[in-house]
Amino acid sequence: MSKDQDSIAVILESLLFRMDEKTAMILKCLDMLTEDELWVRPNEASNSAGNLILHLCGNITQYAISALGRKEDIRERDLEFSTRGGYSKQQLTNKFSKVLKEAREVILSRTREEWLSEYKVQGFVLSGIGIAVHVVEHYAYHTGQLAFWTKQLKEVDLGFYSGTNLNTKNDE
């Protein structure tokens, strides 16, 4: 493996670690919500947990699976936000898991050249690495929204880092 390939592998390992971390957080939130709470919106300018899952599925599909994986772009973005139900928690979880699995397969199968190539996605031109960074930062952003909304609905600490001393100093 060349130095460039090693560098890309390190980047991808870090990005996939963060996706896995956020996936666990999202699944914990979904597990805590009832079927009815899944589609509750804080207000009309905000999205329900169900909408956020549909939106993440759409975004990951468009960026990672379609653009990076060079498949047809079938995303219907407006539906991700206008949907007011129609999916059970299990159906949403299954859809979400399927999208994540397919995206992971695409990410793990790209070549060095594909990571450095440019892709047009959602009107932007990004490198393969740029797409992966976008997917992870977008994923983390909406994970925070899901966590905040779950805390609001349930009035509990989600305990994402239970058992980890987050006060440990860097040199310890």
UniProtKB/TrEMBL annotation:
The lineage's top-level taxon is Bacteria
The UniProt entry, under SUPFAM superfamilies, shows:
DinB/YfiT-like putative metalloenzymes (SSF109854)
Q: Name one Pfam family in it.
A: DUF1572
Q: Which InterPro entries match?
A: DinB/YfiT-like, DUF1572
Stated name of the protein: DUF1572 family protein
The organism's lineage is: Bacteria, Pseudomonadati, Bacteroidota, Flavobacteriia, Flavobacteriales
